[in-house]
């Protein structure tokens, strides 16, 4: 093993001389030039390590905008101009506007690498991407801190697999106000002609973005805040060997303008558990044509503010985002299990569309009401359980008929939930939604407007969960017993430990 200490002036040459077991330490200084690690390969038990000494920072000098009016001398001007240039070369007839075609331009690029540990690096003002990976496997990232940019991590290639991202942080908008409070959603992600200016698409990215990768991804203990998206994977061809075995757990997603979790096209064996969603738009985007073995459990979500400027039509949000009515899902090999989560809601559950195989079981849900959030209310008075309501129509008494009622056709089930909405469950049944046994009651969270979703004494959730049998992708089914608590809070009991042992995992390399 050799320990090499590099500097901003020598790193380009030092990266080509790394061998199994070597350690590359980044000495203090500002690393302004992009660096590529090509074919750096450790071996099992002898990974290559790349780590930072105190004071080592990657900074490309491409700051994100920090105000609505940006002039040539302001921070963010160059990023906005680059974004506009990237959008101008796209074809409006076939392409969505955005900077996604630049996402592989990472400040740190790994190409054809394997068995590499990267730890303690800091990235500031690196646009569009901090870390990009192409055809890499067995890669571990620990304690990476990222500020700014469109993408934290970008991964590509069908050979990209076995990625572990642990204890990393990303704050995309360091003002903590511009993206969440001042920009309309469409300014960042609207279709052609829907935005106020294509420069704001510089925010249209994700903490972890992946295109057609094999899978085997574990993201654990990370904090993503004041950002547009969290974890976002594409599998456009619907291949069954891609987007397999993704696990996101024990993470915090705060002030996410779009989706903390976004699975596109086709996924298999995804596990989303023990995360916190705080002030997020649509938490679970599952626009999936093909899907199998998805487990979403023990997550908590709450809100204490609403996004966007006043009148933003995309500020209402939802728990789920599904395919629209003209684009129905094709296949579900096993259900999408959503169970034992605790939600405190200022929005509807589902606005519109179709999903195949959704089993929504034993969740505790409290809709915010008129007494919550004073003196600045965070609710729309009794938001529909299912359906759309624009902010221009805040007093619509009942939701329109725009989430499918064909639950038998699409294998959709809502069973055993405890929910305080006035239309649950009788009103929903009268409207044609086949809600099964559950309690129309306040789950009695300790402090739902400040994020404590523990159960208070006397909660109707205590010991009321229904028995739930979960099909596994491999091996025997797992059964959660009746009589545990509805929702996230299980007190001192640990009924999910056996289930978690069946989750896909990417173990640390060393």
TrEMBL record:
SUPFAM superfamilies: Pectin lyase-like. InterPro entries: PbH1 (IPR006626), Pectin_lyas_fold (IPR012334), Pectin_lyase_fold/virulence (IPR011050). Transmembrane segments: none annotated. This is Right-handed parallel beta-helix repeat-containing protein. The lineage of its organism: Bacteria, Pseudomonadati, Pseudomonadota, Alphaproteobacteria, Hyphomicrobiales.
């Amino acid at each position: 093993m050799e320990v090499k200490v590099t500097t901003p002036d020598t790193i380009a040459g030092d990266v080509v001389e790394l061998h199994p077991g070597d350690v590359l330490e980044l000495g203090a200084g500002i690393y302004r030039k992009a660096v590529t690690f090509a074919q750096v390969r450790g071996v099992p038990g002898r990974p290559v390590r790349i780590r930072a000494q105190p004071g080592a920072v990657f900074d490309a000098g491409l700051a994100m905008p920090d105000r609505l009016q940006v002039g040539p001398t302001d921070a963010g001007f160059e990023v906005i101009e680059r974004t506009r240039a990237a959008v101008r070369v796209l074809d409006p007839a076939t392409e969505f506007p955005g900077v996604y075609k630049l996402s592989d331009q990472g400040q740190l690029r790994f190409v054809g690498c394997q068995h590499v540990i990267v730890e303690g690096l800091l990235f500031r003002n690196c646009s569009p991407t901090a870390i990009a990976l192409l055809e890499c496997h067995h890669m571990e990232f620990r304690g990476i801190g990222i500020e700014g940019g469109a993408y934290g991590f970008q991964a590509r290639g069908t050979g990209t697999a076995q990625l572990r991202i642990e204890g990393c942080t990303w704050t995309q908008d360091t003002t903590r106000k511009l993206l969440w409070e001042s920009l309309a959603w469409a300014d960042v992600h609207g279709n052609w002609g829907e935005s106020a200016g294509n420069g704001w698409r510089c925010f249209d990215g994700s903490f972890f973005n992946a295109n057609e990768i094999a899978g085997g991804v574990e993201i654990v203990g990370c904090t993503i805040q004041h950002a547009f998206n969290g974890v976002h994977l594409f599998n456009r061809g619907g291949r069954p060997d891609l987007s397999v075995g993704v696990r996101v757990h024990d993470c915090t997603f705060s002030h996410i303008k779009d989706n903390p979790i976004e699975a596109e096209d086709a996924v298999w064996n995804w596990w989303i558990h023990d995360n916190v969603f705080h002030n997020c738009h649509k938490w679970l985007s599952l626009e999936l044509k093909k899907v199998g073995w998805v487990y979403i459990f023990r997550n908590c979500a709450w809100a204490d503010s609403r996004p966007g400027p006043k009148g933003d039509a995309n500020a209402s949000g939802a728990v789920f985002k599904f395919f629209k009515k003209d684009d129905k899902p094709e296949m579900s090999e096993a259900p999408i299990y959503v169970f034992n989560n605790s939600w405190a809601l200022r929005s509807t559950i589902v606005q519109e569309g179709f999903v195949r195989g959704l089993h929504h079981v034993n969740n505790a849900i409290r809709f915010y009401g008129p007494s919550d959030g004073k003196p600045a209310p965070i609710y729309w008075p009794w938001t529909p359980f299912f359906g759309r309501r624009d902010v221009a129509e805040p007093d619509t008494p009942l939701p329109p008929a725009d989430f499918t009622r064909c639950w038998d056709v699409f294998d959709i089930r809502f069973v055993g939930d405890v929910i305080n909405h006035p239309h649950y469950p009788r009103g929903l049944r009268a409207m044609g939604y086949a809600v099964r046994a559950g309690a129309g009651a306040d789950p009695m969270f300790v402090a739902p407007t400040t994020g404590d979703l523990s159960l208070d004494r006397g909660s109707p959730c205590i010991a009321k969960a229904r028995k739930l049998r979960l099909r596994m992708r491999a091996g025997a089914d797992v059964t959660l017993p009746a009589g545990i608590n509805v929702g996230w809070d299980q007190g001192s009991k640990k009924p999910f430990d056996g289930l978690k042992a069946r989750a896909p995992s990417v173990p640390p390399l060393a």
